[in-house]
Amino acid sequence: MDSDGLLTVRDGHLCFDGVDLAAAAGRLETPFYVYSERRLRANAAALLDGFGARHPATEIFFASKACSNLWFLHVVRDAGLSVEVNSGGELAKALRVGFAPRQIVFNGVAKTEVEIAAAVDAGVRAILADSLFELERVALVAARLEKAAAVAPRVDVHVPTLTHPGLETAHGGKAGIDRDDAVTAFRRAADDPWLVPVGLHLHVGSQITSVEPYRQAVETALDIVDEVERVPGVRLEFLDAGGGFAVPYREPLAAGVAGAAGPEGARPDYFSSALAVDDYAAAICGVLVSRRPDLTLFLEPGRSLATTCGVLVTRVENAKTKKRRGAGGEVTGAEDWLTIDAGFNTLLEHTNYAWYFRTLVAGRAGEPADRPFRLAGPLCDGGDVFAGDGDTPYRRFPAGTGVGDIVVFLEAGGYTLEMMNQYNARPRAAAYAATRDGGLAQIRRRESDADLAAFDLTPGFGV
Ligand SMILES: Cc1ncc(COP(=O)(O)O)c(C=O)c1O
After folding, report:
1. Range 7-30+308-453: architecture per CATH
2. For ligand 1, atom 5, which residue shows the shortest CA distance?
3. Domain coordinates in residue numbering, the chain
């Protein structure tokens, strides 16, 4: 069913890395996530090989914000990758799974003194400083600890990316140092006895479906490197080009279809991408190798590693047919609704970025999916309704799909477990890893009613 055989159909049932998802949902409480170690290792190898072939001095730091589950991080480490962390919590998890400090870069746009102290104390490879103020803060902490801190200022290289506006990070906005302040930042670092300027960092955004922003970003970054290396004492080891490689969440929409303009109207359909690892590698390494082959290339991919490794398994808990009405209440048609047991408590991106995830009905994988349904989550909000296929509000499922059917969200391994919440006092879901024999090993437990109450305190009322 998909190019590398991860999705297959057995006796009309959808299987993910050998796991019959309908059968699994028959014995496990839904919703739950299933991860594929095989896919994760293949994704890691593709990145290592693709970039390594064009620039052997490349180091890949998995952006753990995409999935900081401990099992997942163990596989990432074992597959030969390093890790990018974005908070003290992610740093603690990375150290806990055994990443060496040299394998960790520390990012973030509001690092606290406590977080910086933890990073300096651990001796991470670099702190990616977000502002001139933050450089001062790192210098203060490093002096207090009497331990040198390697820093790589993050510079806003100002390139448009046409991804979802919420995922653009180097086109103005909150992240990074203005490029006109880059020389000041490096001079400040070079002049400080406790700071060591080792690299320059940029990150253009996430789900970037064109290579042009990378080309422009690396050109601009290397212009800045030329400028900052005129500062005495500054000779950089690496350029960190961030992450952002896109995942094909759906086939490209036909030209002329309204949705092809993208959810915001003016942007291209950023849910579809035809780019492979080598396209990004050619663009980034092409510029880097022609201008500064001596620089090590750091990359921080998250989505492109994690997303295709996971699926979300949900169950239809309610079904109804409702009349569709016009502005005056007149009947204009009817539509079938299916309500499943996962909403933006389990898959937050579907509402906060109006994200599109493909869906299949696990027990009806052999049947034609030609009936339109509105698909909704269980939360009380009217907005907890999933985007439709193409430019419609409808999902296409087999006729007869109804209560008890298992709806599977594909490409759901990245930015999903991380963003779960307990809204409407719903437990956060469990996660499993597919085992080699088609079984499941639990990698995150489902929360209980006790977990839902675990952090509330009731002074004056006893317990
Ligand atoms: C600084 C930084 N690096 C890396 C990433 C990972 O991006 P992606 O998951 O799109 O590869 C992000 C997320 O946007 C980020 O903010």
Report:
1. Beta Barrel (2.40)
2. 243
3. 7-30+308-453, 37-301
